[in-house]
Amino acid sequence: LALESELRNAFSRGEIEPFFQPIVNLSTGAVAGFEALARWRHPVRGLVAPDEFLSLAQEMGLMGELGLVMMRQAARQLAEWLARHPSAGALFCSVNLSVGEIERPHLVDDVSEIIATTGLPKGALKLEVTESDIMRDPAKAADILASLREVGASLALDDFGTGFSSLSYLARLPFDTLKIDRYFVLTMDKDEGSAKIVRSIVNLGRDLSLEVVAEGVENAGLAYLLVKDGCHYGQGFGYAPALPAQEAEVYLNESL
Ligand code: G
Ligand code: G
Ligand code: MN
Ligand code: NA
């Protein structure tokens, strides 16, 4: 109960902030973008990980608020980095949208306003949604995703390979990016089944003109296998975990 009222206050007090996990070009190591991951900077408990507050936020109906706070801060941070590091090229930052959030009535207006006020280039703010979230109501999701693209966001399908979306839907939805679920990546060096799934997702991405990002790249051996399979981008503890903004900027600078 105490945690509940504290979490409610955390939003108004600005205690929720994004950390940034680098997404790198696997061939060069250069940072291509970041995934923003929420952290709660609690005045007494210190940094609280999402595992400890996401389900509570869900129960309390605060996920819309979380998405908004994360998009605002991530967009503002990215705009600063783009201004300071012109050599970084078309950097992007992705934010996770939770189950049900793509159906939130004001989402498209909010995203439009955030992109306008931060002046981010088209596609720089990327929204990650999961297959299962899309498949709740595919027709409705398709409309909303198209609107999000129209207002300048790009779209990633998260945890790809774990859900049940049919390829015919995937081909019709306006995604820019497929993210290979980390389970397949983590096991691709030991399990031929995982290796085949990774390869087929990379090929699917190529056929549909989608960028493919491998999650869970925990070591150089996995990065090597991914490059051999034609996967261009990855993220994982082999590069960096989610970092506070200042450290993420140092990582960016040193990768270029
Ligand atoms: O960063 P960490 O490894 O602790 O994240 C744990 C889980 O929390 C991940 O599954 C991640 O997708 C989720 N998560 C982190 N930040 C956010 C966020 O801002 N919004 C949503 N919906 N999920 C998040
Ligand atoms: O797909 P999702 O949004 O859940 O991905 C973010 C989650 O993945 C976060 O919980 C993050 O901490 C975790 N993560 C990032 N890189 C790695 C990695 O290399 N290995 C493992 N096991 N988890 C990772
Ligand atoms: Mn994600
Ligand atoms: Na994932």
Automatic annotation (TrEMBL):
<feature type="domain" description="EAL">
    <location>
        <begin position="1"/>
        <end position="256"/>
    </location>
</feature>
<protein>
    <submittedName>
        <fullName>Bifunctional diguanylate cyclase/phosphodiesterase</fullName>
    </submittedName>
</protein>
